[in-house]
Amino acid sequence: MPELPEVETVRLGLQRGVAGRSVAEVSVGHPRSVRRHTAGADDFAGRLRGRTVLSAQRRGKYLWLPLDSGDALTGHLGMSGQLLVVPVDSPLQKHLHVRLRFADGGRELRFVDQRTFGGLLVVPDGDPVPPLLAHIARDPLDPEFDDERFVEAVRRRRTGVKRALLDQTLVSGIGNIYADEALWRAQLHGERPTDRLTRPAVRRLLAHSRDVLSEAVHAGGTSFDALYVSAEGVSGLFERSLNAYGREGEPCPRCGAPVRRQAFMNRSSFSCPRCQPRPRAA
DNA sequence: AGTGACGCCTGGGAGC
DNA sequence: TGCTCCCAGGCGTCAC
Fold first, then answer.
1. How far apart are CA A76 and CA A4, in angstroms?
2. A123 CB closer than 7 A to any strand C atom
3. Which nucleotides in chain B lie less than 7 Å from some protein C-beta?
4. Burial class (CB in 10 A: 0-12, 13-18, 19+), A13
5. pLDDT of amino acid A225
6. Which of A33, A64, A173, A230 can pair with A97 through a Cys bridge, CB separation 3.0 to 4.6 Å?
7. CA dist., res. A230 & res. A91, Å (int)
8. Which nucleotide minimizes the distance between its C1' and the CA of A177?
9. What is the share, in percent, of chain A residues with pLDDT greater than 70?
């Protein structure tokens, strides 16, 4: 379940582990992992071979590695993707789909993905982001994120506030876990209609979203199992700081009422029935 | 144009 | 024990 804090943790590992290095060899073991590279796996490999990685960048939950060719190796971890920087002789992971070896013979980059919702592709780079990612909004930790523009955009929407938080064209980086945590902190039910929220309420929600993302980045993200680890294979520690997500039946840390779970878009929402009352019908 | 439903995937766990 | 079913859920696509 990589969201912004997990992806940012991976980005930091890639910056440390692969920036400045030249790609020597690329192998694609599972074509589905490069399905968004429409020219095919051979073209994908050809655009990487011999190229030097300049840095590791992120927009929302997308990562990209600008190359000296003007292209960028771009990726999304989906639900279960991992980008690992490991010794070349380390055991092959069961769901290892793409490998990049480097000219210096040091640690290699591996894309491992159990559920294959994630993937890699090579696209033209751009400023500030590859055109492929032009539709993804800035995230709340981006210094150029425009708070007031976000506040107005949310209030123009006609939807529930949780759906708005998950809409990557409005604000990026937030997924189901951090949306529930931000709503819990802001004491808002996710079904509250966006067009009836006051400006101060949206500002508060944004501030709480920013706080929870920032705290989670510092904890190295949230790991429920081995599916999310940093590029160095380390688990994040934020799970112990979750107040609502995944805590059905446990007491709300603020008021003690048992946390409830509700169906939401083929998944679950967790909230406090007392601190986050359901909106009244319009 | 904005909104929401659907399909893509696999492994772990519950239930029988 | 072994089978089936459900769940996790981000995002591109498409219909309304």
1. 11
2. no
3. 2-11
4. buried
5. 65
6. A33
7. 17
8. C9
9. 98
Quick: pLDDT tens for A3-60.
Answer: 999 999 999 999 999 999 999 999 999 999 999 999 999 999 999 999 999 999 999 9
Q: What is the DSSP string of A25-74?
A: EEEES-GGGGTT-TT-HHHHHHHHTTPBB---EEETTEEEEEBTTSEEEE
Lowest mean pLDDT among A9-18, A58-67, A227-236: A227-236
Residue type, A170: L
CA nearest to nucleotide C7 C1': residue: A267
Residue type, A276: Q
Question: Which percentage of chain A shows pLDDT scores above 90?
Answer: 84
CA–CA gap between residue A269 and residue A194 (Å, rounded) = 17
Give pLDDT tens digits for A240-278: 789 999 899 999 999 999 999 998 888 899 999 999 999
Q: A222 beta carbon < 7 A from strand C?
A: no
Return chain A residues 124..143 having CB < 7 Å to nucleic acid strand C: 135
- Identify whether the C-beta of residue A112 lies closer than 8 Å to the C-beta of residue A95: yes
Domains of chain A as residue ranges with CATH: 4-133 (3.20.190.10), 147-271 (1.10.8.50)
Nucleotide at minimal C1' distance from the A36 CA: C12
